[in-house]
Amino acid sequence: MTLKLNKEVIEKAKAYASSTDRSLSRLVETYLKSLVTTEVKEDDDIIMISPFVKSLSSGVKVPSDLDYKKEYIDHLQEKYK
Q1: Which of 31, 60, 36 is nearest to 47 (CA)?
Q2: Is 0.70 surpassed by the pTM of this model?
Q3: pLDDT for 10-21, tens place per residue?
Q4: How far apart are CA 10 and CA 18, in angstroms?
Q5: Dihedral angle over CA of 16, 21, 23, 28, nearest 10
Q6: DSSP state of 33
Q7: Can you give the residue ranges of every domain in the chain?
Q8: 6, 18, 13: which is closest to 31 by C-alpha?
């Protein structure tokens, strides 16, 4: 298999792999596995989200252009009128 990737991405990925004591191949394999499977073994490096954390999801869709800083300032201004 041949992959064409940006050199900067490769270097950052190598540094990350080294800092986590994994090979770059293992990182790529784990990532691809997470895309194509729902079954995960305990020895895999995939971080699973617990059912409790999943239950915290509200299902509310937040607009991508939301200015959260402005919203927070507006909230504080209204609160302390």
Answers
A1: 31
A2: no
A3: 999 999 889 988
A4: 12
A5: -60
A6: H
A7: 1-56
A8: 13
